Amino acid sequence: MPMxxxxxxxxxxxxxxxxxxxxxxxxxxxxxxxxxxxAYWDDxxxxxxxIYNRLMFIGHEGGARLQFFKEHEGAPGDGVSALYDSPNHKxxxxxxxxxxxxxxxxxxxxxxxxxxxxxxxxxxxxxAEQMKYISRRxxxxxxxxxxxxxxxxxxxxxxINDEDGE
Length: 166
Known about the structure:
By secondary structure, the chain is α+β, with helices and mostly antiparallel strands. A 7-stranded mixed β-sheet has the order 3-4-5-6-2-1-9. Strands 7-8 form a two-stranded antiparallel sheet.
């Protein structure tokens, strides 16, 4: 299902060490990260806050360190990782990491202890598949020269239009 979207910077989270972005899907008023935070705030307040604090650290102090992410949440090479506040907690936030300089936040959800793989949970599966699609589209835009990755993060045309046949 083709979907257009924009890659928008999250100014509060972005800093000198890493620029943090999220995805604004066509027709939505909030980014995927904002939707994630609102959806899980009541039931997972401390975990949402911990993820926010980790993102603040990534943006302003530490950069996107590999130990903060679980890589290869989809198939190897699809670019989708999961950020979590602690291995003992349930909440997962799917993202795309470009070196230490840029992170694009998507959606996610809780991964119950009885669920072994994200594919077994409809919410996690939907969020991960959406990020895999977004990652493919961004990769195409990078290959075409529409988006550039530099030490300052992402630049160029951060608007991805609907694509027929995708």
